[in-house]
Design a protein that fits this description.
Length: about 100
């Protein structure tokens, strides 16, 4: 399972990508077609801002992935699972033990 933080980053990357795609495919082009110069400038500025945030989140996600760790959560105690190249993931605690507690 993803930690809350990793899930949030993944969700934000997905949502920002959708918004950037919408701006590219629809909003910017529509404002140009209708000659709404103010809207075009606003949409282009918004796209640049979203691109910066998307890049920052992607960079953070990539850095986390390169560390070779993945946070699995069982109850209130997250456990680090080694996902480095050449190793198979394992969880330190038996899932059945958590089900009983």
């Amino acid at each position: 399972m993803l930690s809350h933080c990793n899930y949030d980053k993944t969700k934000l990357i997905f949502e920002l990508s959708k918004l950037i795609g919408f701006l590219d495919k629809h909003a910017i082009q529509d404002s140009k077609n209708e000659e709404h110069g103010g809207c075009t400038a606003t949409y282009q500025e918004l796209k640049l801002d979203l691109d910066k945030h998307l890049h920052a989140l992607t960079h953070e996600m990539t850095a986390t992935a390169k560390q070779g760790t993945y946070v699995a959560e069982f109850s209130d105690q997250p456990e680090v699972v080694n996902m480095s190249k050449g190793s198979s993931p394992h969880i330190k605690h038996n899932i059945a033990e958590h089900a009983e507690s």
